[in-house]
């Protein structure tokens, strides 16, 4: 009998608990103020979502406009690379804005953001320490492309290595030297860049002339040859200049002529001008200077020996 009574008491207590829970639930659901708070929270969440979408659209439009202006840049950049960078920037900004929107929504739902922010900070710190070189490479690569420091096809010198740019990525840059070697640089290690494809270059030709030749005559020949080179070579953009006697050597005098050329064409122009000058000098009978040895006939006496009286 005692056990039966104990069971009945337990069932009665459970019934009372369920009844109280039911009454509290009904009272909570029938509370008008609760529904007003829920409605306000729902409206705020909708506003956060809508505003985040609007901000993302505005940022994407601004990014697309910036990269649209880059299409008219003087540098020739692969359009696929520009499109890839535009999509990358849009994705990064979109993810950042949506992440902030999610945090605001959690705050409206009553979630404490401090543990979330602390966890995100610790995770970001760990990633930053573990991949700081990668982050530096990506940031440097972004600014290389965005600022048009150099483009695919440009001839550049990077960290004392010269070659033609084959690929520009957010992490690495590839250049190919004229002998065929391919050099790969992490963008974060690029400390100095010389671009030979941005501005006009100057072809410099030094001409060696024997001392026996007339300087004025040689100058006239060089000026005529330079006018001819200007008319025949499209890469020369300005009238070549005769600078005069550059140096005096042991067996020759060196005269210098220069010509302004299109970007990165000075090597070819220099070779062609040198060949034309050499041909013209040969036609006029002006030889290439070479060292000369002068032999003087002696008396056959030893030094200090006096000639005997006849």
Automatic annotation (TrEMBL):
Mechanosensitive ion channel transmembrane helices 2/3 domain ranges (all copies): 95-132
Topology in membrane: Multi-pass membrane protein
Organism annotation: Brevibacillus composti
Residues of the Mechanosensitive ion channel MscS domain: 134-197
Functional note: May play a role in resistance to osmotic downshock.
UniProt keyword Lyase present: no
This protein's name: Mechanosensitive ion channel family protein
Transmembrane segments: 41-67, 88-110, 116-135
Stored PANTHER family: MODERATE CONDUCTANCE MECHANOSENSITIVE CHANNEL YBIO (PTHR30460:SF0)
